[in-house]
Specification:
Helices cover 73% and strands 0% of the residues. It is mainly α. It folds into 2 domains: 346 residues, Up-down Bundle (Growth Hormone, Chain: A); 83 residues, Arc Repressor Mutant, subunit A (Orthogonal Bundle). It starts with a helix and ends with a helix. It comes from Raoultibacter massiliensis. It holds the Pfam family GerE. InterPro entries: Sig_transdc_resp-reg_C-effctor, Tscrpt_reg_LuxR_C, WH-like_DNA-bd_sf. This is Helix-turn-helix transcriptional regulator.
């Protein structure tokens, strides 16, 4: 029950975010599409920078669980920002207060989102999928209910949502069993015996290339959000509003399920689904059509949520291996996401030529595709070629593996093994089973067999035993 209560906190965050970025409640007296869009840029920048600050502070903080005052402060700041936006949008405050409100909202959103995702990572994959799907829907439903209330009632409820979110997020969970993972749980990084991990080590072991891809794809997402949902549907009530809320909800739930079931295949499959979707949406003429804009925003959200959900899973791997703190991973995730989104919004506001925006977006997506093709298999955490011990190993397998990784690296270079083949050989050659490799790399049993057969062919052996003897032979030669 306590775990459910903590995730109810996310439903309050989701409702709060939908209210903020659809504007039905907060802008009843004005319809300043361009102005609202520019304030969303302020919100994106402040969210991204606040996420970066939390990531850099993770060495000192370990976890927001141990620094509850930060989460409560984020809730209070978010509530203050919501009041500023609503009062400025209603004409009770000067228009400048709306920018101040979005600045405060961005800071509060970063703290609350990082706190929730930090806890989500510690629940494991199955609980993550369940929480994303169920509590996103609950949040959207709550948003619709609040937005239908009279302004005098809805405003205080909307303003208190981030404070309620902070309260529920900090409900103390039942202690996880040691070594649990997934529905089997991940060790909390907020415990007193949490490892000391420097910022340098965190950047070394975090999926940094994945964050670069997220930043590039966020640019496309930001431009679609500005040209689509902010062009009309933002401040309307009725079917357009239902569409602008419903499409992102459906996108989030479906993307979460796709990533969860795609984990049995190569992780690059998710990118190969997401990138064409983002490219296709960037080609749709959105200006002046709020319904089409809202639908396009939902499709873009699906493509982008695929990458965000995958990022959570890969950060989860890094945390489980005690390579990074969860707070560092989610903070950096929000930094790359929101800074990229802000840049997309800025370009959409600055360039009036839709064709130029589309070309720039497609070029950046092409760069993202090149990064994926060049590095996607290495996004998943695996033993390093430097001989560092993988914390998932134990006993003789771990001791044998420590001295064998260098030999495997030499063998891989000699026979021209690919990055994925080297990764699988590192795991298998250091005593791990095929089942472990499937779970570790999010690939199927058949995929493992296929890669091993390619390795056999390249090095000139016909069985696992022959391959192991060759690895051991290289080890002895060293």
């Amino acid at each position: 029950m306590k775990q459910i209560a903590r995730n109810i906190g996310y439903s309050f965050i989701a409702a709060w975010v939908y209210i903020l970025f659809n504007g039905v409640l907060l802008f009843p007296a004005i319809e300043p599409t361009a102005f609202v869009s520019s304030t969303h840029i302020v919100s994106s920048l402040s969210t991204g920078l606040a996420g970066l600050v939390l990531a850099l502070l993770s060495v000192k903080l370990f976890s927001l669980e141990r620094h509850r005052e930060i989460v409560y402060l984020a809730g209070i700041v978010g509530a203050a920002g919501t009041c500023c936006i609503a009062l400025a949008g209603s004409g009770f405050l000067a228009a400048e207060w709306m920018s101040i409100g979005y600045l405060l909202v961005g800071i509060g959103m970063a703290g609350l989102k990082c706190a929730w995702q930090e806890r989500l990572i510690c629940q494991g994959r199955q609980a993550t999928v369940f929480s994303l799907a169920v509590f996103t829907c609950l949040g959207a439903g709550l948003c619709l209910v609040i937005s239908a209330l009279p302004f005098e009632i809805a405003l205080p409820i909307a303003s208190v949502l981030p404070v309620l979110a902070a309260f529920f997020l900090l409900v103390k969970p039942v202690q996880q069993e040691d070594g649990a993972h997934g529905s089997r749980g991940v060790e909390s990084m907020g415990s007193d015996d949490a490892p000391v991990i420097t910022i340098g080590d965190s950047f070394l072991h975090a999926p940094v290339r994945l964050f670069a891809v997220i930043a590039l794809m966020s640019f496309a997402y930001g431009s679609v959000r500005t040209l689509g949902i902010l062009d009309g549907a933002l401040v309307q009530f009725g079917n357009d509003f239902l569409l602008s809320v419903g499409c992102p909800v459906i996108a989030t739930v479906s993307a979460t399920l796709v990533v969860f079931y795609a984990r049995k295949f190569d992780t690059a499959v998710v990118f190969y689904i997401a990138l064409p979707i983002m490219a296709a949406v960037s080609l749709i003429p959105l200006a002046g059509n709020p319904v089409l804009g809202a639908a396009a925003h939902g499709i873009a959200s699906f493509g982008f949520e695929l990458i965000l959900t995958l990022a959570l899973f890969l950060i989860m791997d890094s945390v489980a291996a005690k390579r990074i703190h969860a707070l560092f991973g989610v903070g950096l995730l929000w930094f790359s996401h929101m800074i990229g989104t802000a840049l997309g919004q800025i370009v959409s506001e600055s360039i009036s030529d839709q064709t130029m925006i589309t070309i720039l977006t497609l070029v950046l997506l092409l760069f993202a595709a090149l990064v994926v093709m060049g590095g996607a298999p290495r996004f998943t955490i695996a033993p390093s070629s430097s001989g560092e011990r993988d914390p998932d190993r134990s006993g003789s397998a771990g001791r044998a593996g420590d001295g064998r990784l260098g030999s495997i690296a030499l063998l891989a270079e000699k026979y021209g093994l690919s990055a994925r083949e080297t990764e699988i050989l590192e795991l298998w050659g250091t005593g791990h089973t095929s089942a472990f490799i499937e779970e570790k790399l999010f690939i199927s049993k058949n995929t493992v067999k296929t890669h091993l057969s390619h390795i056999y062919a390249k090095v000139g052996v016909s069985s696992k035993e022959d391959l192991l003897q060759m690895v051991e032979g290289h080890d002895e030669d060293r």
